[in-house]
Amino acid sequence: MLSKEKLERINILANKAKNESLTESEKIEQKLLREEYLEAFRENFKRQLDNIEVRYVDEDGNPVEDQKAGHSVKSDGLSGKLS
């Protein structure tokens, strides 16, 4: 995740942009910080999704095992494949 200082700088630049004009160097800095923030956000979100385990249950709430492999069905992350 982004450092606290970088997040604060993003907010400072956003507030400044609302109230007045940013200099060209501030616009470039803002763009780079936003890109870095989005990259960190996407990585973190992908890690969260990759750690989700899908388990199926029958109508009584009992776990259902994969008929072919004999184990619980687990999602293979963002690929959508089930193993």
Automatic annotation (TrEMBL):
Keywords: Cytoplasm
One Pfam family of this chain: DUF896
Gene3D superfamilies: Helix hairpin bin
Region Disordered: start-end pairs: 59-83
Cellular compartments per GO CC: cytoplasm
Lineage top rank: taxon: Bacteria
InterPro entries found in the cross-reference section: DUF896
Record's subcellular location: Cytoplasm
Full protein name: UPF0291 protein SAMN03080599_00685
